[in-house]
Specification:
eight-stranded mixed beta sheet, six-stranded mixed beta sheet, 8 helices, 666 residues, alpha+beta
Length: 666
């Protein structure tokens, strides 16, 4: 007979899965039925573990197919309509052996059929169904309405009927899939089942109570959600902080491999057709998949790992005003013991009392109540709020536990004073927890930027590089208008600049800030100047330097007299190269003009007609062309000379520029 196992243990993780354990009794060859949501089947098939703890065995694990209901019912040999189900069923199983209880006796036989016969009822007649059975060698008919019990003796018929009914039942929940675990063994035995399914992430929230002169208290609560279809009744609850690897892998949907199609070849002859042997299409064997696997990281300690367990008080009930002091009320509230363990990189909160969370409900579970090392301070960050610092709790995690991130509600002297968010904290981590704006403290900021003097000059590879410091000063003016002394931590951004030697030493350094500590007396103001610097540089190409710039470099002590003389020689050489280039450009322009004139003269000569006056004009044109040709030859020789001379001067200029090397510390 089918049986069910209740949930006994729930382990919730921070990455969206839950580990569930079920334990219970089975007897003989009982079948255990478990219902899961369709979307959880992949996780269940990946993680399901089934153990018979009393010497029995698990013979098989079966689960609903992915086929639609109509296709599944089409595979059944029995059909049961919505109306007339009994008569329709008996009419489909002719020949099946049954045992019928009629009146005070029992009759065994094979079903012949079902007939509708008219039976007299007073002056009228009523049509009633009659079942015909072959009993021994005799045919007997029984009124179906007088049969109190009908037992199917054929196992095949019984199994078909059970399959049909179970399939129809599973269809009522379209999102639900049933898994059947078949067991075998002798007598009553204990069965263990575990699996991992998708679950809501458990959340944390904290309460901090500040009292003058006493250590602050930290109370932690876990928020768990039961979104399943089953109540958690008196379960052992564990909450795991950390991020183990988890993923979804499709094991539920059937996979099919494409196989080659090999056609049978035949011969047209009188002899029998004999199929030829196939060569490339080996049949793939479908192997059964064992649905079993290791459970998720269990709350038990790994072998060889250091064991550490602590009993922490967690109070049930919210703080209330009036009556006994809030702190005393917290101490006197009913406490629960929370066992904590480190499991590798994970951290476990184990609630030792049974927890009950009904389906589609959530619960707050107390996991922590302990004093910690901390104090009230102010934290100023210009980007957070420009005019005021934040009131904070400087919290050091001396609870010995890993604190998961979550919202914090802060009470001071039995009054609500603000809220904050807490990041995940390992033991002995120290954090600032800002919970309110401190209006009693005002901050004004003034920025100043300037360039410092040049401290180095380097001449190399044709470039003069002068290095100096950009200097930035940020002045913070803090006024404490509160009637009590306060400790202020001022965060100044770290942007890659370095603090100057005369800047105050920061109390601590973070990835993005220098944090300066200031003690503020009541009704006073304090000034903090943070001076920073970063390197800057200016570059001058020596090939572009003029005499005025050389004079400036000398007067600024970037270069000495020897380098200045070398730069002047460079300037002179560059001017010589430029003069030669101008001469080349002038002669080139003249040559181009001569070419244009010659084209015009030749065109005129071609247009002249015969005659004495025309011959005289043609002779003049020819003489002009000869004169221009002589000039073109002279220009060609001059350009060739200028090109060689300019190239030589340019080479000398480049050599002089590259030869200058100089470094000066100023």
């Amino acid at each position: 007979m089918p049986t069910n196992l209740p949930i006994r243990r729930v382990v919730l993780y921070k990455h969206g899965v839950g580990y569930f354990e079920r334990r219970g009794k089975v007897s003989g060859s009982d079948t255990l039925n478990l219902d899961f949501k369709a979307r959880d089947m992949n996780d269940v098939l990946k993680s399901l573990t089934v153990l018979d703890l009393s010497g029995g065995s698990v013979s098989a694990v079966s689960y609903d197919s992915t086929k639609p209901l109509e296709q599944l019912l089409a595979e059944a040999t029995i059909r049961i309509p919505a109306d007339g189900s009994l008569t329709a069923l008996l009419g489909q199983i002719k020949g099946a052996r049954v045992r019928a209880r009629v009146g005070g006796g029992q009759v065994e036989g094979s079903i012949i059929g079902l007939d509708s016969l008219a039976v007299a009822a007073g002056e009228t007649s009523v049509v009633r169904p009659f079942l015909s059975l072959l009993v021994g060698g005799a045919l007997r008919t029984f009124d179906v309405l007088e049969i109190s019990e009908l037992e199917f003796l054929d196992e095949a018929v019984r199994k078909d009927l059970e399959f049909y009914l179970a399939t129809v039942l599973s269809s009522y929940k379209k999102d639900s899939k049933r898994m059947a675990i078949l067991t075998s063994g002798q007598g009553e035995r204990e069965l263990f089942v575990s699996y991992v399914v998708e679950s809501p992430v458990w959340k944390t929230s904290y309460r901090i109570l500040l009292d003058e002169g006493e250590a602050p208290l930290l109370q932690g609560w876990a928020l768990v959600d039961n979104t399943g279809d089953e109540d958690w009744v008196d379960v052992r609850l564990s909450l795991i902080a950390g991020l183990p690897v988890s993923f979804v892998h499709d094991l539920y949907n059937p996979r099919y491999m494409k196989r080659p199609v090999v056609e049978v070849k035949t011969e047209a002859a009188a002899a029998p057709v004999i199929p030829e042997e196939a060569f490339g299409g080996a049949m793939d064997m479908m192997s059964a998949v064992a649905v079993a696997g290791p459970p998720p990281p269990a709350p038990a300690m790994a072998p060889g790992a250091p064991r550490r367990a602590r009993a922490e008080k967690a109070l049930v009930g919210a703080p209330a005003t009036g009556g006994p002091r809030l702190r005393e009320a917290l101490e006197q509230s009913m406490a629960v013991t929370t066992l904590t363990k480190e499991v590798g990189d994970l951290f476990e909160y184990g609630v030792d009392r049974p927890v009950t969370v009904h389906r589609n409900q959530s619960a707050l579970v107390p996991i922590l109540h302990k004093p910690f090392e901390g104090r009230r301070v102010l934290l100023y960050n210009r980007a957070t709020r420009e005019k005021n610092p934040m009131a904070c709790i400087e919290l050091k995690n001396t609870t010995g536990l890993t604190l998961e991130g979550g919202p914090v509600t802060v009470s001071e002297d039995e009054r609500y004073v603000g809220e904050a968010m807490l990041d995940t904290m390992k033991p002995n981590d120290r954090r600032f927890v800002p919970y309110a704006v401190e209006l009693g403290c005002v901050v004004s900021v003034e920025d100043k930027m300037e360039d410092g003097p040049v401290f180095r000059a380097v001449v190399t590879r044709g470039t003069l590089v002068v290095e100096y410091f950009h200097v930035r000063q940020t002045k913070y003016l803090v006024r404490n208008k509160a009637p009590r002394p306060q400790v202020l931590f001022l965060e100044h951004p770290r942007t890659g600049w370095e603090l100057m030697k005369d800047a105050p030493e920061p109390a601590e350094t973070t990835d993005g800030f220098w944090r300066f500590k200031r003690e503020l007396a009541p009704g006073t103001q304090d000034e903090l100047v943070v001076a920073e610097r970063t390197r800057g540089q200016r570059q001058y190409l020596i090939s572009n330097v003029g005499l005025d710039e050389v004079t400036y470099f000398v007067s600024s002590r970037y270069i000495d007299r020897q380098v200045a003389d070398a730069l002047r020689e460079v300037v002179a050489l560059r001017e010589r190269v430029q003069a030669l280039s101008r001469d080349e450009q002038r002669l080139t322009a003249e040559r181009e003009q001569l070419f244009k004139d010659q084209e015009r003269i030749r065109s005129n000569i071609e247009s002249l007609k015969s005659g004495a006056s025309q011959r005289e004009l043609a002779e003049r044109f020819v003489a002009k062309l000869n004169e221009q040709e002589d000039r073109l030859e002279a220009i060609g020789r001059e350009l060739e000379r200028l090109l060689k001379e300019r190239q030589s001067a340019q080479d000398e200029l480049n050599r002089r520029i590259q030869s200058i090397s100089y470094t000066a510390e100023l």
